[in-house]
Design brief:
Elements: H1 3-16, E1 20-23, E2 35-38, E3 44-49, H2 58-69, E4 73-77, H3 80-93
Parallel strand pairs: 3-4
Antiparallel strand pairs: 1-2, 2-3
Length: about 90
């Protein structure tokens, strides 16, 4: 499965929850997540999307650790099933 297919599924999942999934790039800071998802409950998620067998670069690992240290919501998804599980988790919380 291509990363673009996983990314499209993520965008669909966020929009189906009433949120927005913004494509993100930060020219001055490498390693930031692919997407920022803003959900109707006010939560913001930094999300990295990979294909099966993909791995986080060293800079992406640093970004993930920084988000954890700052108490931010961060996830990395490798397939549609993980996205569906995340969506279901969030739906169960509401």
């Amino acid at each position: 499965m291509k990363e673009s297919e996983i990314e499209n599924h993520f965008v669909w999942a966020v929009e189906s929850m009433g949120g927005k999934a913004y494509k993100f790039s930060s020219p001055g800071y490498r390693g930031v997540s692919d997407r920022i998802a803003c959900l109707p409950d006010g939560s913001v998620w930094f999300v990295e999307l990979k294909t099966r067998g993909g791995r986080l670069s060293a800079l992406q690992e640093v970004f993930a650790a920084e988000m954890e240290d700052l108490g931010q919501n961060y996830r990395c998804f490798w397939n549609k099933e993980q996205i569906n599980h995340w969506r279901a988790e969030l739906s169960d919380d509401n």
